[in-house]
Amino acid sequence: MTLVLNHPQPLNGNNMIRYITVILLVCFAFAKANSSTFQSYERHVVEQGDTMYMLTNKYNVTAEQLMELNPDLKLGLKSGATLLIPKSMSAITNRPIEEYETHKVKRKETLYSLSREYGVTELDIKEANKELYSSPLRKGDRIKIPVFKNVAQPEKPIVIDIIPGVTDIVKVSEAKVEVKKGQYRVKKSEGKYRVAVNNNITMAQLEAWNPDLGELDEGMIVNVVNPKDMAASTENISKLRYISYEVEPKMTMYSLEKMSGLKADSLIAINPALKDGVKKGMTIKIPYRGLNEKEAPELWNSTAKYARLVDSLKNFKNQRIAVMLPLSISGVSSDEYGDQLKKSNIMRIATDFYSGMMIARDSAKTLGVNVQFDVFDTGNSESATLKIVRDNNFKNYNSVIGPLLAKNVVAVAKELKDDDIPVISPLTNTSVRLYKNLFQARPDEQFLMNRLKNYLVGFSKNKNVIIVTDNKNPQFKDEFAPLFPNAKILYPDKNNYISSYKYTSALSKEMDNVVIMAVDQVGFITDAVSNYAAKARTHNITMVGMDDYDDMNVNNMGLAAVNYTYPKMNRNTSSENVFATHYFAKHGITPSNYATRGFDVTMDVILRQASADNLYESAVRNGKTIMVENSFEYNKRFLAGFYNEACYILRFQPDLSIEEVSIYGE
Fold it and tell me: How far is CA 564 from CA 124, 215, 641, in A?
């Protein structure tokens, strides 16, 4: 990563590290792709339906490791091809040690990350630093990393019966019993304390879940999750009713997870054949959720409308992305930066956004896609932004993410349009016609309006439609009134007020009611929500608007009572999603919306560039993608740039949660 300020000269190495540490409160280190360490291998014959994502999960390896052993993978997976798979790196390397490297432990580094960085195993590091068997790594520790001679060591062959009467020789280090979910295999020299720490449990829990547990020996299998909880989980799955489903072409485990609402391990528990991957034409059991079998295929097939880019990666060339953010660190000492962050909202947004970008970069690396960020500090200044572009050579960048402000990002796109360098506007949109190389990642308000209108046309059939309007913004009402000629339109009186009687008398007890809020004034909104929520027990009401009203302090109980529905560029996700979990592990806090946005925008750009020759081709070919909270579907407009035309229709639920509304026929 390179950090460049709003002047042409980059910071020197020490200052750069100091500033990035202050900005992100954590140091991210690129992993060294050092795979010279000797390993034994197994073979995998590629079958139809296999994907890189499935292989990396099945064999617990990275895409980078697979491609280093199998260079032809850069051309894609081919049925019938035989791949070399590196075996587990958990054992001690059985080779002479040539020398030791000294490593100073940085914040957040673990034995696992160091083993990946240096191409050795965790036990190799522990053997070289015996104190690590009893004490955890600490920031600032200086430890020894062994460097092994590249000499192969013979392994003891074990004869395994494959078919009665036929034997095969398989070279393995040792025969192991399968470790089930919720269990853990004890490693050499591990005691109860170390096992408990490694699995985030207490010694008391470990002993309670393993009643007859004595002294631990290497290879022992112990419970690290309450067996009763595991049994209850299995029982809940077994109580589900199922329908049969034939897997469609190009479906993946991710598709099945989205379709069924179950995680991969639960799907495999129900369908053991999925252990070998998702294959076209196979019949699996899917939990019944109130749909009959005739309806199910229509719902399932809708998943094919979203591109699953991790399954179609083909361009593994190193990517170089220019990042232009108003970090405003020029001339600010590390001690002062914390105070500046408290005062400047734009600096906090930029810092959060970049922290999410770095998680995306690290995630891409595990898929075999190496990305270099060159970070330019725009200082939130248009003149400084233009100076950066003019003083640096941007021709070698795959794309530019940022700046954040609309006027600045338009200026950058104008400067780079003749070189066809894609520029992504991540947070803001503009009414100015986009240059041909500008990608507007934030859907504009008119698109959100149109998407809501399209949804309402189908949803409101045979229902009593009520449109609430005001005297100040009649054009808002005009967006909806032509679509519903029989709608009841509630106009305010001369004092711009609508009475409770007028609100409630428009309702129908016999029909479902759809109330469209064609207003943006707080008074109308709170009055309407209050009046209609009071009638929710006796009337079926769905209220629809253009805003989430989050900044208006509207009562969420009332919004839930009227099933409030609205369009938004991003959806709400659980704090337990993979990104949030990884982010918390790195930073010790849950990610903000801006951090998640940084991850989503960046991961989408990286994967699109890795699944096509360039971002332009991917935007045309791959269509819609879904990330953690945001989705992206870039469409090029005539004589203009690319606009993101993807969003969500969201609805308040009775438990105050907010769920995505399924839109069929999109």
Answer: 57, 59, 34
pLDDT in tens, 613-661: 999 999 888 888 999 999 999 998 888 899 999 999 999 988 888 888 8
Taking CA atoms, 471 is separated from 466, 478, 502, 506, 524, in Å, by 16, 12, 16, 19, 11
Does the pTM surpass 0.85? The reply is no
d(CA 494, CA 304): 52
- List the structure tokens of 401: 């993410």
Cα separation, 354 vs 328, whole angstroms? 13
Taking the C-alpha atoms of residue 639 and residue 636, their distance in angstroms, rounded to an integer, is 8
How far apart, in whole angstroms, are the C-alpha atoms of residue 572 and residue 538?
A: 30
Q: Where are the alpha helices (DSSP H) in 466-514?
A: 474-480, 500-505
Looking at the structure, tell me whether residues 436 and 584 fall in a common domain.
yes
The residue written with tokens 């945001």 in the block is 630
What is the domain extent for residue 369? 319-443+576-651
Say how many domains are in the chain: 4
DSSP-based three-state secondary structure for 145: strand
Which residues fall within 8 angstroms of residue 72, CB to CB, at 6 or more apart? 78, 81
Residue 394 phi/psi, 5-degree rounding, is: -95, 0
Q: Which two tokens stand for residue 128?
A: 């070289």
